[in-house]
Structure formats: structure tokens, C-alpha cells
Amino acid sequence: MGESELNTSNEIGHAPSFREQAEQSNYVSRDLSWLQFNYRVLDQSRHLDRSIFDRLKFLAITASNLDEFCTIRLGSLYNYIDYGKERFDYSGLRENPFRQLLLEELHRFINEQHQHYLQKLKPLFEKGGFKICQYKDLRLEDAALVNQYFLKTIFPMLTPMLFDTYHAFPTLKNNRLIFGVVTKAFTDSGPQNKASFIQIPSNLNRFFELLQPDGSIFFVAIEDIIRNNIHHLFRNVEILSVNLFRINRNGDFTLEESEDIESNFLQELKRKLQTRRTGRVVRLEIQENPDTWLLRLLKIQWDISEENIFTIPDGSLFDFTGLHQIIGHKEFKSKRASVPPPVNPLTFPEMGTRDLFEVLKERDILIQHPYNSMDPVLELLEKSVDDPYVLSIKITIYRVSKDSRVTAALLRAAENGKHVSVLFEVKARFDEENNLREAQRLQRAGCFVIYGVGSLKTHTKLLLIVRNEPERVYRYVHLSSGNYNETTARLYTDIGLLTTNEKYANDVSEFFNVITGHSQPSAYQNLITSPRDMRIQLINMVRREKKNALEGQPSGIVIKMNSLQDKEFIDALYEASQAGVQVKLIIRGMCCLRPGRKGLSDNIEVYSIVGEYLEHSRIYYFHNSGQAKVYIGSADAMVRSFDRRIESLFLLEQENLIKQAMNILRYNLKDNVNSYRMLEDGTYKPKEVSAEPAFNIHKEFYLVTPETIREVKLF
């Protein structure tokens, strides 16, 4: 790996009885495994060969990851605790012991976050040409500019919210910086403390910028500006203390099905989104040495314990995601890592010079983002909008970008009289409101819109375009592991197939009939779907490798995915390992399988790739006695993917495309820059540095040629 300061001693410091019980389990806790993933992201900010801006980027990612984790995973745990429901974690622990263990590990991680920021990153700011400057250290002329900004812009937006006998405790917002101000009031019974709360507006920049004579930039945090001007909000009142804090609320919810699926479902979704804004507080971040009276008040109001309270050390920063203003600043663009331009797909070298409709009649095109751009997919969709031969467009959407070209094309297609069917998954977590708004726009334009399928999330990524050409009707199909989101396609590694192959076309047509109507397909030719039969089909392929190994035939399994959590699938992999099958897993995030345990998983290796791009592809490879079976698609091996989502995996047919997918797996296993190896105890270490030169897949995939994949072997 590149030069790094990684501290790999991430042992969990909790009571021995909890630890022993967790380590005896054959499965790793999902939540603790996720925290190990965030340690790997934090490690990216330790790499000394990166600029300070790129190191800060990874620190900011750990903060947004942690917010989501507390809102959803910690929130989910409290759904059991608060309502007295029984829950056993994969570690074998019940809900309350596991809560204690999890909060201890959260404290450990957050402490490491802030110490890394203070000791390793903050000292590099001035060398990078900037400084996060405290108000008290400003020059007089700079302080005057800051005060003017406060009075003209910030002050009119602030609203102190008093809590006392006559004022209810305010509903304070999730993930928002908040001041708790304690003032002294005089009553007939004597002096009393009163609490007021001020939420910092989220639509203002986190930092006020001051250009210095030497060309550097001073950034002054908005909370520092408000703190030093707080007297403007409390005139003729004695202020006893000013305390900065921030909360995460429980945002985990499920939707109830109803007979009136459309109107009631949308109303239920809107209601649940509102509860996310008022859900119980599961984490409180507060400044060091807070006012004890205020802290006691908050603990009582939110029914939280000391373990849920996280102290932010002096000199550090609340909410590292605010650093994106500095990371993305135009003045520092030349100092950040540059992204190479995408290259043409191996099976479409003439991209940009030929009509895509004609090319797809000749051959299938496998696209790997971001090394290949999303342009062919967007071009196919946008060409269809005005093409007189195109009759209909059907698509599943899980997440789209802001100002999406995809939804813009669908709107124009409907306006042009095309039949447009869109399954717009409005339950995509944290994108619910945006997806609901976009889906309703499409519906108003005349598109046939399905707002998800009951309680299932539609996570599959499929596009079907029907074109009535002079010689016959062609169906142009796109199947993918990634969202129809042109922004994330530049940041996430995904894989997709463009084709007119009739097998895929029949399968996808049938699949759309299932999810938009009441069809029940007898069988697909190249698709595996959930919640229908994905788990059992994948397990059967694992068992086939086990059978081959027991019979002395060649065998092997290589799988690349985001997360591995389903116990039935894990058990099948354990059984295959015990039969002698070599199993190699490339799992970016959480992994509940325990590799390398004697007698259980001796033949299983687990790697995680964490680097410049977010690994998002799902590829399942089975040796199959030399006749490789390779599936690609949207599904991880998780309970939710198999039972609570509409997912699909598609079988690759053509030999050159199979080899291209196998090469993706081969390169992932070869990487020695971004790769971490999972240990039996659930922790990770950077992949051992060998005598071989550095191999970074986030660079090497730009250099792949047809010759590269000619002779690809995984075993």
C-alpha cells in the first residue's frame, strides 16, 4: 500500500464476557463490521502521498457515513430497546449488552477521528494555503468584515427558541448545529436558569472566507461567528453559558402496506419522513465541558444516557462534512488529485463515431464505470426521446442526480408521445423526498409511474427501449449494478451491459410485466431475481462447486460485492470451504462471514478495496468445471436483498465479456495499494506489501486492452 500511518490495533475494548461471546460466534456483527469499514475509510486520510484536501475528503466521508450509521443502524437497535422487542445480534448478544458494546466502539472511533484531525491534519492547513481561523485570532479589519456578515446575513435568519413553563421544548433538527444558551431570569421565587436554543441555518456556507495579503485563505466557522455575536440575540439578559451541540435522531422506519396502494402509500411515506425529523435522539455531540445544568436538561428531555453523549474536544470541529467547502474550493483545484478522462469500452472502441442503435445490433457492450463513461447509456436514452421508430421506454430508478439528464429525457419522451413506464423507488433511503418529487413530475407529464412495489424496495437497475424498425422490432436493453445517476457514475465503480440479445430482452420484458402488473413468470433464461429465488439459486451454485471439489474436479468461487450478511449464503460458503473449495471474496463494506477459522473457513479469503472510487459492482463467479458462470447485477448477499428487495443478477453469455468480468475480479485480487485483508477476529490489515510493484486498480483499469483479457484465469 501507499505510505500510511494506519494503526491496525482496532481491538474492541469492552467487558471480557461480551468480547468472548462475540468472538465465539461463527458470524461477525453486522454493525461492528460496518465500523471496521469506516476505519478503512479513515485510513485513506492517513496516506501521506495524498494532498491535505484529499485527506480531508476521506475524513469528511467518515463523518457522513457515521451520521447515516447512527440514524439507521443505531436507530434500528433502539426500535427494539424502546419497544421491548427481543433482538439477537450476529455476535450472539442481546439488544442491551450489544448497545453497550456498540456505543463503546463508537466512542473509540470518534475519539480517533478527532485526534487524527487535530494531530495529523490540522497542522498541515497553512502549508496547504489555508487556515481554519478562530474569531479571537482575527485581525481587526477581518473581524470587522466578519461582524458585518453576521449582522447583514446571519442575524436575520436566527431564531432563539425559549424553553420554560410557557414554551414547549422545541423540536430540534437532525444533523444540525445548535446552540444551547443558558440565561439567568429573575422571578418572584428568585433567580432561575432558562434555556434557549438556536439552530444554525443549513443553507449558509459553513465558513466565512477571508482572503489574506499573502494569497492564503482564512476560513471562519459560522458557529464561531455566532458564538462571538450571541449578545445581539440576548440584549439586557445575563448569559451564563453558550453550548454548541448536534444530534442524530432515529431515522429507521418501515412502511405499512395498504389496499389503496397509491394514495395511502404516498401519504404514509410523507408521514414517516416527518417522523424521521422528530425521531428519538440516539447520539448527542456536545462541546467539551458543557454547562452541567443544560446537559442534564437535554438528557431528561431526550431520555438518553451518558453512553449516547459524545464530547467534541476543544480545537476540533463539529461535523467534518462541512469541510467540503474547503475541499472543493476553486482556489485549491490544482492541489487535489485529478481524475483521468474515461476511455472507450473494450467492445465499443469506435464510441462517438457510430450510431449506437446500429452497433448494438452487431454486438453487446460491457461498460465499467467510471473507467468508461455513462455516455452510451445516456445517449441511448436521449436518442430514443426524438427517434420516430421508438415506441416505448421502461426503466427502474433508485437514485438520480440533481438536474438529472435521465428524468429530463423521460419527461421529453412523454411529451413526444412515447409510452414511458417508470418504476421510481420512492423508498430509497435519504432520497425519498427527491425521488417522490421527481416521480410526481414524471406522472404529471404523462408517464406511467409506479411508486415502488408494496413493502419491497425495487433496487434492480434495468432499461428497456422498444424500437419498431423497418425490418423488425428491436428491444434495446441495459442491465447494471449502478444507479441511473450520471454524477455517481463518475465516482462509483459499476458495471453494466447494453444489448439487443433476445434472451435478455425477453427476460427484462417479462420482469417489467411482473413489477408493473400481476404477471408470474414461469422461468427466466438469463436473470436471477429476488425475492423470488435468488438466494436458493446462488446457494445451489455454491453447492455445485462443493460437489465438484468432493469429486476431485476443479472448483472455485470469486465474488465481488458491497456487503455479505445473509447467514444461509454464508453457511453455504463455509460448507464449500470445508469441502476444499477456494473462496475469494472482495467485499467493500460489512462482512459477517468469519474467514480463516480453523475447521470452518480455512479456504476463504476476504479482501476489501477502499480508495479513490467507491466500489459498487457486484460480480459472482463460479468455476463450474471450467465453464465459468459469471453473474452481474444489483444484489449483495444480504437478507434485505434476498427477501425485502426486488433485485436482479444477469448471466453473461459471450466469452469475451465473461473474460472482461473475470479480469475485473483478477485485478481486484491483485491490487496491493487499496486492498485490506480481513482477519478472523473481524478486523482488517492493509494487504501485505510484496516484492511486486504497486498495483492500483483505480489506475490500471484505464489501461486495459483486448490483449489484457485474452488469457484470464482466477484459479
Protein model, in words:
With 715 residues, the chain is α/β, with parallel strands linked by helices. It has 4 domains: 1-124 and 305-336, Up-down Bundle (Methane Monooxygenase Hydroxylase, Chain G, domain 1), CATH 1.20.58; 130-255 and 283-304, polyphosphate kinase like; 369-525, Endonuclease, Chain A, CATH 3.30.870; 528-703, 2-Layer Sandwich (Endonuclease, Chain A). The chain is built from 19 helices and 27 strands. The strands form 4 sheets. Strands 14, 18, 19, 20, 21, 23, 24, 25, 26 and 27 form a 10-stranded mixed β-sheet that branches. Strands 10, 11, 12, 13, 15, 16, 17 and 22 form an 8-stranded mixed β-sheet that branches. A 6-stranded mixed β-sheet has the order 2-4-3-7-8-9, with helices on both faces. Helix 16 links the parallel strand 19 (557-561) and strand 20 (583-587). Helix 3 (52-82) packs antiparallel against helix 4 and helix 11 (375-386) runs parallel beside helix 12. The longest helix is centred in the N-terminal third of the chain and has 31 residues, at 52-82. The two termini are 24 Å apart. The model is unreliable at 1-15 and 255-263 (pLDDT under 50).
